[in-house]
Amino acid sequence: MSTATVRDIATALGVSPATVSRSLNNSPDVSTPLRERVLAEARRLGYELPRRGTRTGRIGIIYFNETSGPKFSGYDGVIWGGVARAALALKYDVSVVDPLDRKPGESFSAFAIRKGLEGLVLRVDVETRHFCQKVAEDGVPHVVVADHFDDEIVNYVCCNTSAPSRAAVEHLIHLGHKRIAVCHNAVLDTDHRDRIEAYHAALTEAGITPEPELKISVNAEIAGGAAAFNRLMSLPNPPTAMFITDPALTVGVLRRALEVGICVPDELSVIGVDDERLRKMTHPIYTAVCQNASDLGHQAGRWLCRQLAHQSASRRATPRLQMEIEGFLEINQTTAPPPAKSVRVTPTGQRLNGDHDALQQAM
Prior knowledge:
The protein has helices at 6-13, 17-24, 32-45, 74-89, 108-114, 130-137, 162-174, 190-205, 222-233, 247-260, 293-312, 356-362; strands at 58-64, 93-96, 119-124, 142-145, 156-160, 180-185, 215-218, 241-244, 269-274, 287-290, 322-326, 328-330, 344-345, 351-352. The chain is an alpha/beta fold. A six-stranded parallel β-sheet has the order 2-1-3-4-5-11, sandwiched between helices. It has a six-stranded mixed β-sheet with strand order 7-6-8-9-10-12, with helices on both faces. Strands 13-14 form a two-stranded antiparallel sheet. α1 (6-13) packs across α2 and α1 (6-13) packs across α3 (32-45).
């Protein structure tokens, strides 16, 4: 079985991978002589040409996540709902596909054909994002949701939360906070990485040295937020504010603060991230870096299905999708100036007055 890729063909012909991909997908943007050269070189290298012409009316969604598999709740559930809403409006069905079902050595083009899929919507994390390049190189119509790429052959739609994340930390600094913690998902993706970088940039710009003990990595779930709260608030010098890069973690922190009697925002300021309307369901309503996950999925599904319909009708090909939707910072009820003295509590909720020995005994 040949291992030739779109990049191999491009290198042999001295053209860009994007040109090869358009040629293999029969785009009218490519001249007939160039398309014939690309097809001839693909055959010479043994590249498996996509089989076109069979309409299935179906696209697939794949989550490349080797640690926890597909997710259908929270952020990802809202994304998939947006994809489905767009696809159904354009008369396409949506299937959930297990990437582990791909046979050894099977190209993604052959995999999609075997599954009866005309195109793919992809979700990845930092460890699996390289699969997106492979899907693109195999000439599969695709779009990646919630990630961005420098590679011109990868289609994507994402939300830019870097600027509002930096603004969130700057908001805390302007209120007078200096001990600001950050809590993020243990499984990083570019969203979380960008928010962490924004946190560091805001502190550094303000002359505040980021402290390792104030950076917490936990599983993105409510229990993880509670665990992060316990760890941070039992430090000898606890933070007076937290920036939390995930909605479930934010809820976990707020709930744990309520359980142990920490008053938000008078004793602890909290800024979280919200992908839909979760911030409106907490008390107090939390200040949040906001993004519209449903719109991300809808934009991805609509673009992909329209592209497939255009190709089928032999009309002009849809331009490549490299879209960034801007997030925004919404100030609500969970931020205030820092307390005169930081509040320190044990994981059981016992309040301490800065006595390290008392904390050790309580724990």
